[in-house]
């Protein structure tokens, strides 16, 4: 069974926020991906919450409000859910009021936090891997130290590729037809047969002759082809441009 493996980037590599996803900057930087070809589908969200400062004018209260709104929007959507990233909260410190409120928010949304060891040189857990309880996910998080002040989070998730349905199509290998031989066979087949002067009969004869010669040079073959759904970015304009290029 294939595995989806993810590792957290070092400090300074921030996830890009989708403009139509988060209405307020206080949630930090967010990006999410949907993997529809897995069974069941998987949604992966990456969040970076910068520490509050005078420059970004962010507060924990605003972040928690925006994060709660995001959870309300995403929590009931189908498929499995993984939320990961740098939240800059000491969730291992029970005496930290902000961390306690954040963990309470996860609990009320039926979410689990899977990181159990320090992810920062200060000895605290700042980088998280979160999933829904009902998804029964065990990402098996492994924390390893590196050159950054943040440690690397490696986790794996067993996934199964969605089985594609298929359909049977008929086709002819017409590009391998020899034009000269094809023309010769049509002429030889029609020679001596054009005795009728009734238009309908001549049309039937011409059609039957073309069909029989075509079957001889490029017989009908069948094959099974998978049915794939187009990704969201594959628009009608892209489809038309692809067909035009062919």
Automatic annotation (TrEMBL):
Q: Where is this region: Disordered?
A: 1-28
The UniProt record lists the Endonuclease/exonuclease/phosphatase domain at 43-151
Provide any one GO MF term from the record: catalytic activity
Basic residues bias: start-end ranges: 1-20
Q: Which PANTHER family match?
A: ENDO/EXONUCLEASE/PHOSPHATASE DOMAIN-CONTAINING PROTEIN, ENDONUCLEASE_EXONUCLEASE_PHOSPHATASE DOMAIN-CONTAINING PROTEIN
Write down what this protein is called: Endonuclease/exonuclease/phosphatase domain-containing protein
Organism of provenance:
Capitella teleta (Polychaete worm)
> Taxonomic lineage per UniProt?
Eukaryota, Metazoa, Spiralia, Lophotrochozoa, Annelida
């Amino acid at each position: 069974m294939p595995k989806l493996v993810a590792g957290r980037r070092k400090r300074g590599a921030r996830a890009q926020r989708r403009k139509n996803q988060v209405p307020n900057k206080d949630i930090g930087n967010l990006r999410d991906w949907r993997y529809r070809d897995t069974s069941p589908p998987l949604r992966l969200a990456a969040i970076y919450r910068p520490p509050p400062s005078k420059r970004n004018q962010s507060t924990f209260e605003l972040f928690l409000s925006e994060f709660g709104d995001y959870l309300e929007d995403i929590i009931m959507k189908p498929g499995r859910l993984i939320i990961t990233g740098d939240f800059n909260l000491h969730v291992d410190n029970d005496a930290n009021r902000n961390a306690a409120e954040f963990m309470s928010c996860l609990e009320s949304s039926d979410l689990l936090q899977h990181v159990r060891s320090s992810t920062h040189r200060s000895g605290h857990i700042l980088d998280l891997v979160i999933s829904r309880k009902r998804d029964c996910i065990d990402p098996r998080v492994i924390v390893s130290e590196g050159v950054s002040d943040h440690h690397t989070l490696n986790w794996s998730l067993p996934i199964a590729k969605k089985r594609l349905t298929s359909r049977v199509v008929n086709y002819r290998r017409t590009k391998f037809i020899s034009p000269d031989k094809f023309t010769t066979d049509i002429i030889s087949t029609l020679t001596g047969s054009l005795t009728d002067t009734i238009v309908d009969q001549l049309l039937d004869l011409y059609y039957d002759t073309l069909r029989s010669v075509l079957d001889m040079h490029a017989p009908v073959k069948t094959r099974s082809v998978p049915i794939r759904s187009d990704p969201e970015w594959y628009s009608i304009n892209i489809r038309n441009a692809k067909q035009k290029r062919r």
